[in-house]
Design goal:
The chain contains 10 helices and 12 strands. It is of the alpha/beta class and 271 residues long.
Amino acid sequence: MNLDGKTEVYGLIGYPVRHSLSPVFQNEAFRHFSLNAVYVPFEVKPEDFETAFRGLKSLGVRGVNVTLPHKERALALVDFVDPHAESIGSANTLKFSKEGVYAYNTDWIGFLKAVKKLLPQIKGIKVLLLGAGGSSRAVLYALKTEGAEVFLWNRTKEKAEKLCGEFGCKVVEKPERVLKDVMLIVNATSSGLKEDDPPLFDYSLLLPEHRVMDIIYKETPLLRFAKAKGCPFQDGLDMLLYQGMESFRLWTGLEVPYGVVKKAVLDYLYN
């Protein structure tokens, strides 16, 4: 990578971000197209977000991905909001231009492209969605856009009720009550990042016909149970890649091949 005075800067803003794989595959995407650009992580504490946002504009940064905990606050600072981001209520992609700052949400696209590898037809199916945080908003938007019937569970029932009031889903008291009715199970919580995280429900009740997706990009306890039960399953890596590929397209107008970014991540993780 040769940096000079004409190198365009892109990045990721969040807290924390040092663990992120986004710089790995986004920089590979720039190399693939021989673009004079670089993608770097910016670790910004919540109390410094507005200052950092103004700094990005002043420094001439061309675009950033936005991750936790800044996705919702970003919408209030931009000049233009994509209709999908407005409906979801959060942004994960910002594009800086002479006209102003544009906000997009590509998480829902990333989820949809990833989950359709598990279940090509979403319309009319019943889904159990676990969690009512920021990631759940994009997942729920994608599922409802495709015509799925969603049952939402969250440890804090009030948050689930608020989200269902916005998106038109059904709150469930316990995940176990709808397991026999649903085909797809999606974990959109952070539970599973640590091995000692408590289970979200009794994973032994999974059925072979269930499709299971976890947005965490590692093999979580939920996915290990799914594997043992013979369920088709998927971690969150493809969702991460597809949302990043869409961000790259919004910034550059170019569509990077899936194989390029997937290989970059696998090489980084296992070589």
